[in-house]
Design brief:
homodimer
């Protein structure tokens, strides 16, 4: 009886971590600050990138690695920004791994990029289990997903630096208690920075942009 | 500039079909019709069960196997119905597999049950890759997830018998084009039965209940 997680084996995971470290060091050397956006299908990851990239582009070169099981829908939505984009199709695999990111980085013009966004496969579980060598983990959680996601899928909230609570524009139509969402998140990871935004309306997206710029300054001081 | 594409190649999935087949045959022998509810975190799987169980309970004994990575939140929401429920905690694994279902079935009073619901781990990818021996696959997709989920996560739509498009009560607040959702789904699987419901308001849940009863009659004729 075979379960995927068992078959991966310790060696393969160790190999993954080794490549993740190489990715991390290469990006460090190139002074590229990178963000790994994770979250459920439909949480709004691509829309957040659509909102974010224009602000970043004004100041810095940026690039995107798009992870999808199949298709190039998300890449196509970002094509209008005329920035370097690598689309990775995982061929059924439910997450990005370090090797895929390595291949992605190899195709990017690194000297033109200061901020790199990775959009992981839409999945609140598996992407959290694979190190990929990206500096900041961002979990995107939409208020339409209910109040209990952080306690039901704790790992991704534990390993993240920021939680973007998205779709706040829908709050007035739902019974969802956003304070309860926040309380639950902080139970799982009390250090997680929470930014509430609506990528649809642009509400509070500035706080997320400010975070990126502020982290970029720190990254280049360090 | 532009989009570069990388294909990682076919996945590394193992088989648990033998145990799935055993589960299938045991349920057949006991004349228990079973439904495997799959979908993203927050798509509304538990709420659909909360809406469904009272109707089923009136006519038939029913039971639930609840799959979660961690916690017993969903089971607790169903406790009020006083039906047999088995909670499976996968301990980090992103899907239910046939062995977990076998263990779950062993704990249920099978002679009292005619309809069995399995609520899979919230994940639009991995649950589709593991046969578990359950008769009907149901994919739950909420309109808040956007229009393109079926084309981005095709497998789960391909292997399903029914797609419950949930949260139709929110349609009036969103720009989402539900006709486009349906068109996309039928591109992936033209035989997929689509039922649009709101588990929140109960709208059109009767169509789903009728489907269950009608399938139960067919199952017991066959």
């Amino acid at each position: 009886m075979g379960i995927k997680k068992i078959n991966i084996g310790k060696n393969l995971l160790a190999e993954n971590d080794k490549i993740a470290e190489e990715n991390f060091l290469l990006l460090k050397e190139k002074r590229i600050l990178s963000f790994n956006l994770m979250g459920s299908p439909g949480a709004g990851k691509t829309k957040i990138l659509e909102r974010t990239i224009p602000y970043i582009k004004k100041k810095f070169g940026c690039g995107v690695i798009e992870g999808d099981i199949a298709g190039t829908f998300d890449s196509k939505r970002l094509e209008k920004f005329k920035i370097p984009i690598v689309q990775i199709n995982t061929g059924g695999v439910c997450h990005l791994d370090a090797f895929m990111i390595k291949k992605g980085i190899e195709k990017l013009p690194l000297d033109e990029i200061k901020i790199l966004f990775v959009e992981n496969v839409g999945n609140l579980v598996c992407p959290a289990e694979f190190k990929i060598g990206i500096e900041k983990n961002i979990v995107v959680s939409s208020i339409t997903e209910g109040e209990d996601k952080s306690v039901k899928y704790p790992l991704i909230f534990k390993i993240s630096d920021v939680c973007l609570i998205n779709k706040t524009d829908l709050l007035k139509f739902l019974k969802t208690d956003i304070k309860k969402i926040e309380r639950n998140i902080l139970t799982i990871n009390k250090n997680l920075k929470i930014i509430k935004i609506s990528a649809e309306t642009g509400e509070n997206v500035s706080a997320w942009i400010n975070y990126i710029f502020s982290e970029y300054r720190k990254y280049n001081l360090g």
